[in-house]
Amino acid sequence: MSAPAVVLLVLAITVVWGGLIAAILLLRAQPERTDLPPGGDDDHREDTAPIERDT
């Protein structure tokens, strides 16, 4: 393996594994976002809508 190939390999490994480690540390520090609006309540629209079937 040539020197530029080794440098590129080390750089790629650093970017991939460093990004993974940074993401894990960020998720550990802030596991859930609190700045999003409330939501996720089911309004049961599908209970009153006509049934759609594939033919």
Please provide a written account of the structure.
With 55 residues, the protein is mainly alpha-helical. It has one domain (3-47). It has helices spanning 3-29, 45-48. The termini are far apart.
Task: Outline the fold blueprint.
Elements: H1 3-29, H2 45-48
Task: Please sum up the structure shown.
This is Methionine/alanine import family NSS transporter small subunit. The chain crosses the membrane at residues 6-27. The chain has one domain.
Task: Please report the distance between the alpha carbons of the first and last residues.
Answer: 58 Å
Order of helices and strands: HH
SS content category: mainly alpha
The major pleated sheet works out as: none
Write down the overall geometry: elongated
Q: From the alpha carbons, calculate the radius of gyration and give it in angstroms.
A: 24 Å
Q: Say how many strands there are.
A: 0
Helical content (DSSP H or I, runs of 4+)? 55-70%
Mean pLDDT: 86
Overall tally of domains = 1
Unreliable stretches, pLDDT < 50, 5 or more residues?
Answer: none
Question: What fraction strand?
Answer: under 5%
Secondary structure tally, helices: 2
Assembly type of the chains comes to single chain
Region (Disordered): 32-55
Transmembrane segments: 6-27
Protein name: Methionine/alanine import family NSS transporter small subunit
InterPro entries: MaAIMP_sms
